[in-house]
Design brief:
Layout (H helix, E strand, L loop, with lengths): L5 H10 L10 H24 L3 H25 L11 H17 L6 H27 L19 H4 L2
Helix pairs in contact: 1-2, 2-3, 4-5
């Protein structure tokens, strides 16, 4: 596994496009994210200087599923369920649902906290959960096999992990 280049690490989630099972080491996850960011920058620049706006959305849409899958596998490597990725979405959705009625009422409220406060509290909870997931992705994976599969760094399981 030491001989893999950053491009190889970026390509692994694309080869396992919608595979939500197994484990992904930190290198696979973070090289994929770096490649995604660099690709996004290049496509954004191209979209500004030419008429390929549709390509931008197409690339984002095409990379969404492998990004989600590698995130789930990364959490599996730390012996956590992939459902953790959805944890920030719930408070964000509640916050957005609470903000719209406050926006419809306008800014005439005597105390703006009463109209936006509960929504902002849910947004803050979602932000804290997003930070927790970010920290989970930074942690090393569990040594040896866990409930989601063999250790990606175990030399005895390389054929199974890289199949």
């Amino acid at each position: 596994m030491d001989e893999l280049t950053p491009v190889d690490w970026f390509m692994r989630p694309l080869k396992r496009y919608a595979d939500f099972s197994g484990r992904a080491p930190r290198a696979e996850y973070w090289w994929f994210w770096l490649g995604y960011v660099l690709l996004s920058i290049v496509i954004n620049i191209l979209a500004r200087i030419s008429a390929i706006f549709g390509l931008l959305g197409l690339v984002y849409f095409a990379l969404f599923i492998p990004m989600l899958a590698v995130g789930v596998r990364r959490l599996h490597d730390t012996n956590r369920s992939g459902w953790w990725l959805l944890a920030p979405a719930v408070p964000y959705a509640i916050g957005v649902a609470l903000i719209f009625p406050a926006l419809m009422r306008g800014g005439g409220a005597a105390n703006p906290f009463l109209s936006f406060g509960p929504a902002m509290i849910f947004m803050l909870i979602g932000f804290v959960l997003a930070i927790a997931i970010f920290i989970f992705t930074l942690l090393p994976g569990t040594k040896g096999p866990n409930r989601f599969g063999p250790d990606p760094y175990d030399p005895n399981n390389l054929e199974e992990v890289f199949a």
